[in-house]
Design brief:
By secondary structure, the protein is mostly helical. It is built from twelve helices and no strands.
Length: about 190
């Protein structure tokens, strides 16, 4: 399957290739599949076509990312919902930093994505390679504004453990106080 059709979001050409039985798991030089490339450019209709054709939603690229963590990290919610609807997505899969998809979604301030992911059985207290949970990530990477307050509130509402400290012994509350994030500190103190 010519990958340029996927990158360009060309549904017609992609449909032709799928119809001819062209390999939908072909890889580029970075080991990205057409589905991962479609996700990168938010090509929703091309992604739908490839998912419907049975594309592997757990295929890893050369940096060990799958499209599931990528879709979550980039807030590609339509594609994320399609991936989840297959019931094939590995919710335990981690990105190159050892984080489940929930962590980069919070990091990038995608509150709607976080909400979608919280409707699954994803581990909300997963610890990544930095020793951070999603709460710590939301505090450290966020600026404490309304979006990050909403994310912290969503996480706490479903039982995220606010007492898990990072590898240096600092809790999300300690990080919030050290950064002067008063509103987030209040949420964590509730």
């Amino acid at each position: 399957m010519p990958l340029d059709a996927t990158i360009a979001g060309d549904v017609g050409r992609t449909r032709q290739h799928v119809g001819k039985g062209t390999d939908i798991e072909v890889r580029d030089a970075l080991e990205r599949t057409p589905l991962l490339l479609a996700t990168r450019v938010n090509g929703v209709e091309v992604a739908r076509l490839l998912i419907d054709a049975g594309a592997d939603v757990n295929a890893k690229d050369s940096i060990k990312d799958t499209l599931f963590p990528y879709a979550g990290a980039e807030g590609r919610n339509e594609i994320l919902k399609m991936i989840l609807a297959t019931r094939k997505a590995n919710l335990k899969d981690t990105n190159r930093y050892g984080g489940v998809v929930l962590i980069p979604a919070a990091h990038h301030g995608h509150s709607d994505t976080v909400r979608i992911l919280l409707s699954t059985v994803i581990n909300i207290n997963h610890v990544n390679n930095l020793g951070w949970t999603v709460l710590i990530e939301a505090v450290i990477r966020g600026e404490g504004g309304k979006v990050y307050q909403k994310i912290v509130d969503l996480l706490l509402a479903v039982g995220a453990d606010w007492s898990i400290a990072d590898s240096n012994g600092a809790t999300p509350l300690a990080h919030a106080k050290a950064r002067g994030l008063t509103e987030i500190a209040h949420l964590l103190e509730r």
